[in-house]
Amino acid sequence: MWRFLSTRILMGVLTIWITTILVTLLIHAVPGDPVQIMYAQSQGTTPEQIEEVRRSLGLDRPIPVQYAMFMERLVQGDLGNTIRGGQPVLDVIMQRLPNTLVLACAAMFIAVLIGVPIGFLAAYRKGSLTDITLMIIAIAGISMPHFWLGLVLLFFFAVELGWLPVSGNGWLNLVLPALTLGLSNAAIFARLTRSSMIDVMNQDYVQTALAKGLPRALVLRRHVLRAGLLPVVTMMGLQFAFMMGGAIVVENIFSWNGVGRMAVEAIFQRDYPIIQGFILTFSVVVVLVAITIDALYAVLDPRIRRS
Amino acid sequence: MKLFGRPWRTTAGAIGLVAGLANTAAADDIVWARYGDIDSLDPHRATSTLSLQVWSLMYDTLLATDADGLPVPHIAKSWQSNAEGTEYTFSLEEGVMCHDGTPLDANDVKYTIDAAFSETTPSVTKGSWGPISGVEVLDPLTVKLTLETPFVALIPFLADSFSSIICDSNAGSDGFGTNSAIGSGPWKLVSWTRGDRIVLEKNADYKNFGKLAENPGAPYEDGLIIAVVPEPQARLAALKTGEVHIAEPPFDDVPMIQDEGDLSIIVAENTGQNVFWEFAVHRPPFNDVRARLAVAHATDAATAISLIYGDLSIPENCPVSRGVFGNDQDFCAQYRPAYDPEKAKELLGELGYSMDNPLETALLVWTGGNRQKLGEVFQAQLAEVGIKASIEIMDIGSLNARVRQENENTEGTTGSMDMMTWSWYDPDILHALWHTPGAYRGYTSPELDAMLAETRVLTDSEARKAKVQEVFKYLLENAIHVPLYTPGWEWVFAVRPEVEGFFVAPFVYPNFSDVKLGG
After folding, report:
1. Helix (H, G, I), strand (E, B) or coil at A122
2. Between residues B390 and B8, the one the model is more confident about
């Protein structure tokens, strides 16, 4: 178990280290002079100021030196300052990261809470009208783009019914973005749960349990559910990263003040320190979630921790 | 179904808990929603319109702008300059108070200008302050600025929020620009949650000397919340529910809003915004004036903007927009190439182009504000005379960088032109754009440089106007800067019926001092 986990942690550290190299190179991947691009809109910016920015970002040094400087600052918890406004990047990110995590967790909660029971029911009633109907709904859910579903929910619940606010960052404001993000993911979980459960239901040990006369509900609860949910747990890890990314669109629609929206604004404004900080933070979160899911997987499935 | 009993109950409980918590503004707070946030609370650290609009609410400026966009006294009740235009002395009003209760005096003006010219962290608009070489406090209410050379654009600059007066009590604050900001404007900072909202409260001590507002004192309402709502449809939804009082609506929905009549539409005038054609002039085909003129003659701006914006925007004849010094529609109309497709074809024919052998060019357009649709209309107009334009849509940062790259590229035969946008309060913008080396390294010439240099030093208003219009004539006749329309961005506001007294001052500065939220 510990060997399994330490391997996963080492791989996570390796992933983050590679990310630090990539974010250092990022600023050089853009055609043209990045500092000129950043200040292209600043009327009255003098060449001396542009040179000063280039120097402060270390762009006048060789790339390996830039990387060393970046890492030296990083271990001290310093991701630099934003180009626009000159604020510490880490502060700007940490102000918003909790919002995105809350949104992704709430969406995951909704997705699992709706998707898994529907998938289970569809598997239980395999081939019936209920199964077909639920799977049609699931396919529709997967096909719906976030921006469309978000706007529909917004106009229905906020404008027509007036139950929920349109935008902002309170608890009540969380409902619509979490529903938007959660519903389409619920469809994914529903389909995955269904196929996984059907697979387990056809296993010999389940058939044996049923043949011995155990109540069907008991067989499902004790023998099918745990084994059938293993792929769902894996999918939760993958989908969490997807939700963090997908949150960018949803955050924009509902004015949810998360890191996704911040990243989009930074990209438009060519604020490279924020973009670098965002990518790095995003990778750390994804790696942490992946390690947690791996650990959970190992707990649920003895074969994994023994391998 | 017994299996699902517990989870469903848990969900219902969770939704109930969430629904019990509300997050709303106070009833007497004005809520204004915009698509983006400010960059900084420090007027020396940013240049965006979004930032300027907020600074105009929190800070005062020495001068203000009248309805025609001309500088008038504000916290400086008068000013004199020497005959050479190298010294300006300002007399300040008595009784102006900073938000922390300290009086605003000449030391605050000196503090602001010294900060703009700081050795270590100069203002990002340092160049626009001009060649200021000294700031002297003559007495608490008199301050003298000394310039190395005359710079007449200083006066309109001092009326713009770029030159907001920062109270010197900010000096001891670590968080100035991010967590704190002490000004003397009608609204005081309560908090700024980056990316979400700025919360302001009224400055009860405020005295309005010259800013455009009927209200001579503190704002009528207690609070002003400036919220970030990036999605246009969400802004419209928030307007409809009453969550937001004022916001820019989606352009395509403006006719519907006008038909419904629940919200009123306010269009800003004298925004200083100018949208124009410019060209990559250091390679064919646009190194030849005939190719540039052909584009200008092929473009029917009036029809295009009418199709896309209805009557929300208007054609512009001058290289600076209405409300900016020197703008004269009749004067410019004499020199701006008129819509004449036959003339365009003739010019293209001289260059060897025809409908079968079209002139090929990239057409670069800034994303948003329906400009991509406008670009498509222009693309169709150009196609009618034998110009094949490929539209490329990009954000403003990419557009600025790309235009410069195109100008620096002297190889190849495929052209590049762009629908550029600039906003400024003075024709000095033309110096930034077209004086060597030029903001985008585009067209420059010794003749134009000489004229532009003179527009900066002529202290006599009439003489300067004549020189500025000479520059207009040169730019228009050579089709270097072909004006299309004004205004161009963030100039349409949808306002809820309970809002009274809202208006937008020149250069897109919304004013909330007169606003009352009625029943």
Report:
1. helix
2. B390
CB-nearest to B125 from A44, A166, A169 is: A44
Give start-end residues of each CATH 1.10.3720.10 domain in chain A: 100-257
Going by C-alpha positions, the residue among B56, B34, B194 that lies closest to residue B505 is B56
Contacts of residue B188, Cβ cutoff 8 Å, sequence gap at least 6: B58, B99, B200, B201, B202, B203
- Flag if B3 and A220 touch (Cβ within 8 Å): yes
Instruction: List B134's β-bridge partners, or say none.
Output: B146
A and B: number of Cβ contacts within 8 A: 177
Q: Are the C-beta atoms of B398 and A38 separated by less than 8 Å?
A: no
- pLDDT at position B120 is 79
Reduced to 3 states, what is the DSSP secondary structure of residue B276?
Answer: strand
Per-residue confidence band for B341, with pLDDT thresholds at 50, 70 and 90: very high
Alpha helices in A39-82 (DSSP H): 47-56, 63-75
Q: Which residue has the higher pLDDT, A234 or B86?
A: B86
Tokens matching residue A204: 């010999």
User: ipTM exceeding 0.90?
Assistant: no
Give the C-alpha separation, B519 to B516, whole Å: 10
Q: Does the pLDDT value for residue B146 go beyond 90? A: yes
Give A100-257's CATH code, choosing from 1.10.4100.10, 1.10.10.10, 1.10.3720.10, 3.90.228.20. Answer: 1.10.3720.10
Residues with Cβ within 8 Å of A132's Cβ and at least 6 positions away in sequence, in order, are none
User: Which chain B residue shows the shortest CA-CA distance from A109?
Assistant: B11
Cα B443 to chain centroid, rounded: 24
Residue with tokens 């009860």: B204
Give the closest residue to B348 by CA, choosing from B293, B282, B408, B424. Answer: B293
